[in-house]
């Protein structure tokens, strides 16, 4: 069974840094993309950053220049610098991959890790 395990969340002061990591484990045939979303209380889940199989990255406007996404096969990391109180949210790792050659690619989600930025 494919699982995503996130780590690295926590409490940090405004202007500080955190690094989130997410390790995919289980049957993996090929990975199309990996990324991070976040959801603040009473708000919809929103895209933070994604990284494609070819290394192309995409960032939300709100985090451009402050966050950096990287990937090492089945592990994706999110380096977050210059954190702001508005970055406070639960951060979810996601991946689109094929578990076996004969199945279609599907989306998988982690349980999330909390990031809290104090002012």
Describe the structure.
The strands form 2 sheets. Strands 2, 4, 5, 6, 9, 10 and 11 form a 7-stranded mixed β-sheet that branches. Strands 1-3-8-7 form a 4-stranded antiparallel β-sheet, with no helix packed on it. The model has no long low-confidence stretch (mean pLDDT 97). With 119 residues, the protein is an all-beta fold. The radius of gyration is 14 Å and the shape is elongated. Helix content is 0%, strand content 58%. It has no helices and 11 strands.
Distance, first to last CA: 40 Å
Task: Give the radius of gyration.
Answer: 14 Å
Shape: elongated
List the secondary-structure elements in sequence, H or E.
EEEEEEEEEEE
Please estimate the helix content. Answer: under 10%
Number of helices: 0
* Main sheet attributes: strand count, strand direction, barrel closure: 7 strands, mixed
- Percent strand: over 45%
- Uncertain segments are none
Count of distinct strands: 11
Mean pLDDT: 97
Structural class: mainly beta
């Amino acid at each position: 069974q494919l699982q995503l395990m996130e780590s690295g969340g926590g409490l940090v002061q405004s202007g500080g840094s955190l690094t989130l990591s997410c390790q995919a484990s289980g049957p993996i045939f090929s990975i199309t993309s990996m990324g991070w979303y976040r959801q603040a209380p009473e708000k919809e889940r929103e895209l933070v950053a994604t990284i494609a199989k070819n290394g192309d990255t995409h960032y939300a406007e709100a985090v451009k220049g402050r966050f950096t996404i990287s990937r090492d096969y089945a592990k994706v990391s999110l380096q977050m610098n210059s954190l702001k109180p508005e970055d406070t949210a639960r951060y979810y790792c996601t991946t689109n991959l094929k578990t076996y050659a004969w199945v279609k690619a599907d989306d998988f989600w982690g349980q999330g890790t909390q990031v809290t930025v104090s002012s």
